[in-house]
## 1
Amino acid sequence: MAGKPKLHYFNARGRMESIRWLLAAVGVEFEEKHMKTREDLEKLRKDGVLMFQQVPMVEIDGMKLVQTRAIFNYIANKHNLYGKDIKERALIDMYTEGIVDLNELVLIHPFLPPGEREASLTQIKDKAKNRYFPAFEKVLKSHGQDYLVGNRLSKGDILLVELLYNVEELDPSAITSFPLLQALKTRISNLPTVKKFLQPGSQRKPPVDDKCREEAKNIFH
């Protein structure tokens, strides 16, 4: 029997957080090996377990997977979060790419120099409210179903709800004009596995603070 997936990253959200969301949503318990220093990252590199010399890296089913989207897709395929056919997978991938585009801005935001954060926040709010959220609201309205694709839960739904939470931390009014996104957020949040992940004390990471910024600086710079 395969052991629990092991997640290699530093003790923060970053690109690993979406992977945590996916694993948690499908009820898979996982372990974390946190890097704390530059030496921890260099050791992984010297051990030859980082194909492209970078994290996140997930040990799962005898593999050492890198590249965030590859990890998404493996989890989605394994746990039936990837549609029923090639057309549905194409739509799920398309939506996921849009989600990741905006989430990248959100993830980078707290690590920017203080003087750059105001402009970053303005950009995030504008893109969320005027580009990405209207697009996803339109998708949900177009078919009137509970989920983005095929009326069944997919990686796109989970990652979109993670994004909604992330943006709302920066702008609490972010989805007030999008009733279908609000409904999707509620629906996903009420799934027992997700509800558990959203509780205090879970492996969900808190917003970035000064300690996290300093740790990231020590590891990656």
Note: Residues 86-190 form a domain with the Glutathione S-transferase Yfyf (Class Pi); Chain A, domain 2 fold (CATH 1.20.1050.10).
## 2
Amino acid sequence: MASISAISVFLLLVNYRLSTALVSPGFKTRITSEGLTYANSVALDVLSKAIIGVSVPDQSGTASIVTYHLTGIHITEFNKPASQVTLNPNGVYWTGNNAVIQMHGNWRYNTLFISDSGNFDVSATGVSFHENVALSKDTNGRPHIKASGCGVSIGSVSLTFHGGASWLYNLFSSIVANDIKSALVGQVCGAVTDLINTNGENALSKLPVTVDIVNTFLLDYSMDEQPMFQKNFMESYHKGEIDWKSSPAPPPFTAPPLPPRNDTSRMMYVWVSDFMLNSMLYQGQLHKFFAYNLTAQDLPLANRSALNTTCHTLLCIGNLIPQLQKSYPNCQVDLHMRSASVPSVAATPTDVLGSASGIIDFYARPVTGNNRGNRLFRYSIRNTPAYLFTLNVTMSTAADVQVKNETIYGKLRDVKFGVKVVKTTIKDINDKALQFIIDIALNTVVIPKINSIGAKGLALPTIENVHFVNPSLSLMQRTVLISTDLHYAP
């Protein structure tokens, strides 16, 4: 399992592309030469651990009058080669040069008159390998990896025998060396290829391409085209769309073009288009997610009296609208809130801005019951709230956005709103007087609910045990850009 997780660093850093798509993505990632250098270092560490203990097939043969058998041959040490990862139009080319491999095994021989046995040590020097790593996507938009075209060369193989008669070694040592050399080529290639094809594919299968959001929305990070590569970096374009979880469907708009960035000083760059959040807002409006009936019980205890029509404090809706005290005494006012149109978010080079428009219907609800003879009975049948009036509320806001670990967090600030009465059964309502009630509703209920979602954050797709190091966030046109280094910690 350790090798499966470790190779994931290498896979994360090679699973990116330069897209020539006409449709802009909602999410884009770039891996630079710095990232590839780190990936190569991690991959070599994984290979070094994986190849220790690898068995070389038993060897038997005849040399002159000697029949020999070599058994239990296994690799005991692997001194890492000088290595690098380079890019080509089809993927990644991984090379290693001048590694040293130590092996140990048992030998047995017999001649016409003598038989003997012992053990031996082998040192293979000048071991080099190369491997083509092809990257693609499967039918579900998941990344797929496959190694091909492996090649291994070995400079020399020397043997040290223990036990037996030394005069016999020279009769078959050169033949044994050639046998082991040939067998070792296949084993090294097998270890490198298996690390990619088996462990690597297993690691990629765990890469999240969808993320659940408040058990209602589903963020789709799937790839929609085959990878492509540049000389000095790799880029990957992803869907980056948030759908309604139970019935995913694309919004009637596409992501705006992502702004270019030439910086390659960090290992990894992530472009997050504001299309991602706007697609969520569209789905929320379509499925009536942004609707809420607010009552006094939703407010903090100290503010609940603000919705009373019969006032025992100065600041309550009954004092703001005196007719409520007269016509609807001993009631509390409920606010039936819903968005009037799709809210929107726009990233700019200086800020993240949001706007929304909503409708709030006000109702009076008795709090003392429906006793016979009580005049509440005139306007409230079986405690059904009585309609009062409707407000149109517009809201504008900015947001503080930050990245921590592998998650983007957001919090609203500078919230401003305006109100206008659009329908009423109550005369002489002052729009400005209602600002107080709306302020309480927004700042004690609505905005905290939005910020609670922002506090949970938007998880970025990363493979297990790969972490961001010193990530920074900058704003661009319609885009949030994250720059980070990476660290693998199994």
Note: Confidence is low (pLDDT under 50) at residues 1-21, 369-381.
## 3
Amino acid sequence: MMTQKARDCERTTFEGYHLSLADLKEHPGIDNKYLSNKNIPAYPESVVFNVQKVSHVTGESGLRAIFFNSGFRQPPELAANAQGPFIWWSLAVTSDEIYSAEEHFLTSLFPRRTYAQIYNQPSILEHFTSSKAFQEKSAYGNFRFTFSLKELLWHYGMQFCGDRSPVFRVYETVLYKQKIQYTVVVHPHYINLYDDFPRLPRRQSDDVCGYYKGAMWWRCQAPSEVYMNKLKVNRFRRRVDVSPHYKEQYYVWDHVCIAFHMEPGWVLHVNRNKLFKRVNACEVSYPCLLRPPDTQLSLKEATHILADLKTEMC
């Protein structure tokens, strides 16, 4: 366990482990008021999402650098600050994947529901999947690149891994004030820096996340930052309902990041036309974590910048 400051935020890191929410609660060295909140109303715990897409968010300078380089590289200033030799991606959960996860969750509770019970069951996850892990906004910039994980791995494998597939490993769990970040590292087989880190699980299990056939499965344990609703399971009627909670309750939320190992000078090349198809403008969420010289833009400003860049590059 290691505690340090990052972007003016205190964080506690556990290298080589993906510690569950229960593990973190029981850890004697952790003092976190959000994690220890005992008044959290009932909510859908351990919902498994099968996620096929990932996103990388950046500011205007990062956007221009990506198109200038025709691909992704670690910014030199981050390498100088010992941020790790990575380019960072987050899971991009779609509405269809939320719907599928909800169906699996309900089926696990009630394996033998009738057609009428299935038809009359109201949606539940939309009331709880409100953390930044499920939002279009991002704290890291106004420009979001979204790829299927399978496509991104193909580019990475073709350029850096020779005739072998990239390796997935459990890299770390990072606990911030109100966030749990599970990091997966992806690297070529001949890079030995991560030999002491365990391989990422493939088949679904009780682990936090894993990779199987082009998709990440993620067992989300805390889908909200603020709980304003509570879950009620009626086993007799085989139905789950959602009702307002008497008071807002703040809690930690969890998400998964994928860190692609990049050697000095490496650029993960992607055709510019494809880059334009994969990028869109988005709003910046609070707290803004953009690094200088970038500043927060409105959605309208970001959209104009993206349109102007396409004109310049064409």
Note: Residues 39-313 form one domain.
## 4
Amino acid sequence: MAMELRALFLLPLCFPGLQGQAPEALRLREGDTLYIQCPYAEGTLDYQTKYWCLLKDGKCQELVNTYSKQFSQDRRIKIDDDARTKTFSVTMVALKAEDSGTYFCAIYKSYYDYSRLRTISLIVFRELLQWELDTLTVQCPAGSGAWCRGQADCTALVSRQRSSKQSEIKSQRDRVTMQYHAQGPLVTMKNLQIQDSGVYWCAPGDSRHTQKMEVVLSVFRRTQKLTAKESGTVSVQCHYKIADYSTASKAWCKREEGKTCSVLATTRSESPAANSTAREGVRIQDDTQQGIVTVTMEQLQVQDSGVFWCALQDGSGLLRMEEVTLSVSKALPRGGFPDSGSQSQDDLLGDSCSGNTFLVLSVVLLLLLLLALLICIALGVRYYRLLLRTGVREAEDTSDRAEGTAQPGSPGRRESSQDDSKGPAYINLDVQSPPSPEDPLYCNVELSQAPRNPQHVEYAIIAFNPPPRAGRE
């Protein structure tokens, strides 16, 4: 960072009129696109060449310009000039971590004389996602001499020693190494753990405040969740890379809050470590041919619930391979209710009653539905039969009326004269029982046949339409 600040300090001396301009900081992910617009003054001539420069050793390293933009060495960089808006734009696609640096857009005035318009401090970080126990390999740019961790200040995990002629320098942590090559040092981090997540960067050997390449590392743990019943058995399988860890010792430990992971079983032939709490019923087997560690726990108890690790076991301690969360629940005895260790019998009885009540209500509703269906069917059949009976009676009444009955219930019949058109119609009534003098008699008679002084007179007029005649003879 100091060299970069010194270069920025020399800019006003190399490029007049740059005083008071501070670089804009941009932070982009590898693979993103950088788009910059650089407006220029109205008096700028159209033929004046516009440049996109990388600040290097206090000078402009020309990357692309509007005069020979088609001859740009890096095809990822394009420049366009809009004379109407007095603005030229720069686009950098498919950014790489090696593109990090200080850039500026400028207008050429004379020999080695540029008028800078806008300065960009660009950081392109490489985002890496790894699993625990994976190996991270990073190729640093040429000129790098240290592998640092931290957002601003460098905490060197490994660095190149000027007085050393070794080609490989190991840090205090054996998991981080640096190998030096012509194209730049190669950094390797083994046995990654979740706490290794963070920001790393390559720095020059003489200045650990200048970032040459930044890496954002995220390490994820492999997890499993298992459930089991009390007095039962659970089996767990953990996978590993055969080439890296087939010869390493494996362990099964339980993680306690605020404590180290207590070893319950190990593949070591010697006695367990000092923090071991090995107990009966826990077995561990290592299949080095397939890279699988199998752990079996028998006669489980509720207190066995917790967080466990499949881990590598070496001199520095335990390195987690996978994290297993185990939940052991109480088993129901033959009576159907557990003891009052974790849940009261009343609570369990209430839960059971709630389930039984729901079942009973469901059965009752089903029976009511079936009963209602049967009632509807019975009513439908009865109504159908009633309709049939009504139809028969109507048919009988119709036949009786067709015979000329004058009074309902009377067995009279209609007789007509041979020629209905010549006179009134007559109705003969055959009364089976002698009528009472008080009963009215209905008939149509000639006026001459009517009694002189009738006591009761009731009138009835019966008209019949003449039947159609087939024809006249």
Note: Helices lie at 2-14, 242-245, 345-402.
